[in-house]
Amino acid sequence: MKYNSVFDIIGPVMIGPSSSHTAGAARIGKAARNLFGEEPAWVKIYLYESFAKTYKGHGTDFALVGGLLGFDTDDPRMSKALDIAKQKNIKVEFIEDDAKADHPNTARLVIGNSSEELELVGISIGGGKVEITELNGFALRLSGNHPAILIMHNDRFGAIASVTRILAKYEINIGHMEVNRKDVGKEALMVIEVDQNVEDRILQELENADHIMQISKIVS
Amino acid sequence: MFRTVAELVEIAESENILISEVMIRQEMDVKNVAREAIMRDMEKNLNVMEKAVEDALQGVQSVTGLTGGDAVLIQNYMKEKTPLSGNLLLDAVSKAMGTNEVNAAMGTICATPTAGSAGCVPGTLFAVKNQLNPTREQMIRYLFTAGAFGFVVANNAFISGAAGGCQAEVGSAGAMASAAIVEMAGGTAQQSAEAFAMTLKNMLGLVCDPVAGLVEVPCVKRNAAGSTLAIVSADMALAGVTSRIPCDEVIGAMYRIGKTMPSALRETGEGGLAATPTGQAIKEKIFGIAATVKE
């Protein structure tokens, strides 16, 4: 089921004007920010279909940037996000892409600083709910309904087992799991949706497990 | 977990509980939290809705100047004249439009199910409240009942204008409000479903054609239509009128209609009212660029 809580329907509390184009956009921005782990120095935002046609009117531009600044959907600073980014010297660029997208509200965010870069595709499916459909070239389907951990690892035998063993040790139940790799033996991504929030000490232990490169966490 | 309106009604009837209670219990189960926490969270949403209506009745204006102030005009008219459509109905219209005026003015609102359609549920609630005198808990339950029906729509069809047109937004919102009104007025679970079906049937095919891509024209006034239909359908259901097409099939029809709706009429600002000469002139004035017209 795409929606599992009544608060997806009655909610979120948000700054207007559009749940899919403002609140949803802010959540996509915030997911990218959380995964990147810090405030980016520059952002390039590609918009598709309805997002591309109406982003100025709907405030999709300031909402995406507000999310990247770490704002929640009801943050009163939301409508000033573009100015705030400018004051912080964050380089922001919007590109209206006329390519066809699978979903009418699609945004591709490429963000980075002098040393690192992250690329994420998010869709806003309505009522402020979003899904992350691509991360650094990996296709995935992250609903944001549950806390999740994203693990970049090397495609080697035992990598998955070493992660699930640690989660089992702390009695963390996996609700949904996906594994995706660029090529045999190359970089791979594990996406694990869990039922409860994962503490930092467990993340630390996961990071030290065999073949693990990098870990990030999304709190629902 | 219920997937359809038929299942929702069946649970309410077999356990002899309200629709709102079915939703509350499911939420407790899904989130694994206590009833008090869920009721408290929903009350926070109710407080946001109440504040938005209060702000609207003080008068608000959007940045573009396209919307704002109509909720006040209607309230003044009600004080000075006897409205032809009746005080309760017009009060709902004023509060529904007011909520969306606050949304367009970038104020704080609670999406129900979306921001563009955020007026129907609170607008009707704060109007019928004056006649039904509900407790605070019943007002919170109103939101759970509305949410239960919206939950079925969101999982079986869509609730965004970009995906399914305005029928998915104001259509769903108005229908959700009808179902909630019926429960608050003491109707049965099945009557809630009938009211929902009758409202949504009358919203089928409604396109999403925002002028200049803004959630202002025609969105604010569509919430007037959604809340009016919500109250009328609730009254019809309470009177014993039923829908010939079952509720779940109406939701299915809404989904198929949305799927075949051209993209120019799904929140791209390229067709319908957005493509009228005045709609284009407004876009040009605000953004300095002419509207793309596609239909």
Task: Write up what this structure looks like.
- Chain A has 220 residues and is of the alpha+beta class.
- Helix content of chain A is 29%, strand content 35%.
- In chain A, helix 1 (19-36) packs parallel to helix 3 (60-68).
- The mean pLDDT of chain A is 91.
- Chain B is globular.
- Chain B has one domain (5-287): 2-methylcitrate dehydratase PrpD.
- In chain B, helix 4 runs antiparallel to helix 5 and helix 9 packs parallel to helix 11.
- Chain B is built from 13 helices and one strand; from the N terminus they run αααααβαααααααα.
- The N and C termini of chain B lie far apart (41 Å).
- With 295 residues, chain B is an all-alpha fold.
- Classes of the chains: A alpha+beta (220), B mainly alpha (295).
- At the A-B interface, strand 1, helix 1, helix 2 and strand 5 of A face helix 2, helix 3, helix 5, strand 1 and helix 7 of B.
Keywords:
heterodimer, A: 220 residues, alpha+beta, 60s Ribosomal Protein L30, Chain: A, B: 295 residues, 2-methylcitrate dehydratase PrpD, globular
Q: Which spans of chain B of ≥5 residues are poorly predicted at pLDDT below 50?
A: none
Summarize the helix and strand pattern of chain A as letters: EHEHHHEEEEEEHEEHE
Shape summary of chain B: globular
What CATH architecture label of the largest domain in chain A applies?
A: 2-Layer Sandwich
Biggest beta-sheet profile of chain A: 6 strands, mixed
CATH architecture of chain B: Orthogonal Bundle
Task: Determine the strand fraction of chain B and express it as a percent band.
Answer: under 5%
Radius of gyration of chain B: 19 Å
Encode the helix/strand succession of chain B as letters: HHHHHEHHHHHHHH
- Strand segment count of chain B: 1
Number of domains of chain B: 1
Q: For this structure, what is the CATH class of chain B?
A: Mainly Alpha
Please name the CATH topology of chain B: 2-methylcitrate dehydratase PrpD
